[in-house]
Amino acid sequence: MAKKQTNKIKFHKKLILFKYILNLFKVDSIDKLGQNLKDTYLEEIDIEKQQTKFFQVISNRLVFDEEYLTVAQLERYDENIIAHTKHINENRETPIKWKYFQYLELLFTEIYLDKYFSNKEDLLRSLNAFRERYNKECLEGEEISEYSENDLNKIAFWAATGSGKTLLLHMNILQIQYYLKLHGKQKDYNRIILVTPKEGLSVQHKEEFELSNIEAKIFDKNSLAEVGKSIQMNLLHQQSADFGIDIIDIYKLADETGDKTIAVEAFESNNIVLVDEAHSGASSSKDGAWVKRRNALSKDGFCFEYSATFGQAVVKDNDLTNEYAKCILFDYSYKYFYEDGYGKEYQ
């Protein structure tokens, strides 16, 4: 039957990557996947089995398609999440315990990174097969464009303010470091760069990294002359050592180095880039300058983006709508946050 409707559908219903991962669990919404996961006792770890109780509920409740996702894989992902959580809790008086939506975000990240680093070609094929099924059912003019390999090295998280985005960012760093080591890919990447909306937030991020037992520093432009040397030295050790993290605010990145700016090309293109409050760059740069710089930094690397307001940022730009529909891995935007009973001040 020919498509007749041409009314625009809401952005959150177009998140094809999010839908793809949900489909691996044989569900079509976060509400269905989160069913029976919201009780606080599930936030504890089964010490005897060294498993999260979230994993135990999910693995017992769902029927999996063994071709795409197995209980054994989920168990391995759960082990990784427990190990990374222990890492960020090492310096904390009060250990972090994950809410169900935070655990699911980490689980989705495990699934994606595993597929990306173990068999990128298969990931591309399966994403496009899922996209074709989606396009047949969606409204005319609302189709999602085909994935290319260049689309795969960026994932984004639509996370409500107050939902623990910073801690999840820390975990995402540990997750990608794990998969780089697992596949011997450390030498393929230059450095980890966290891009923040402003200088004050860069300082705040550095303090929070210290709490999470993760090495990070505010990037110093005066060290640019030593960048090439330090990269070569670091490459000798990356098979066994983790990357340090450079923190820089978005306004210091430019096309050319100036008194207060650093040329993007100075960092090369094979970086792991994390963008905090990504909507600031996506929506405020009318000529696409920031998007081009972000793409240049991570062209041969990998990019994570985080924002509470992706919907507002992309609403008037069809290209951005299509781009973020294809890369938002997890949607826990404010409507879900509110429906679950959490306020903006929720710790």
Question: Would you kindly provide a written description of the structure presented here, covering whatever features stand out?
Answer:
A hairpin with a 4-residue loop joins β1 (45-46) and β2 (51-52). α5 packs across α6 (120-137) and α5 (100-118) packs parallel to α7 (165-182). By secondary structure, the chain is of the alpha/beta class. It contains 14 helices and 11 strands. 39% of the residues are buried.
Briefly characterize the structure:
The protein is 46% helix and 12% strand. It has helices at residues 16-24, 30-33, 53-61, 71-89, 100-118, 120-137, 165-182, 199-211, 224-235, 279-284, 289-298, 310-314, 318-327, 334-339, and strands spanning 45-46, 51-52, 154-159, 192-196, 216-218, 245-249, 253-254, 262-263, 272-275, 302-307, 328-332.
Strand order of the largest sheet: 5-6-4-9-10-3-11
Our estimate of the beta-strand percent is 5-15%
By secondary-structure content and strand pairing, the structural class works out as alpha/beta
For the sheet with most strands, the description reads:
7 strands, parallel
Tell me roughly what share of residues is in helical segments. Answer: 40-55%
What shape does the CA trace take? Answer: globular
Rounded to the nearest angstrom, the radius of gyration is: 20 Å
Quaternary organization: single chain
List unreliable stretches of 5+ residues. Answer: 1-7, 225-241
- From the N-terminal CA to the C-terminal CA, the straight-line distance is 50 Å
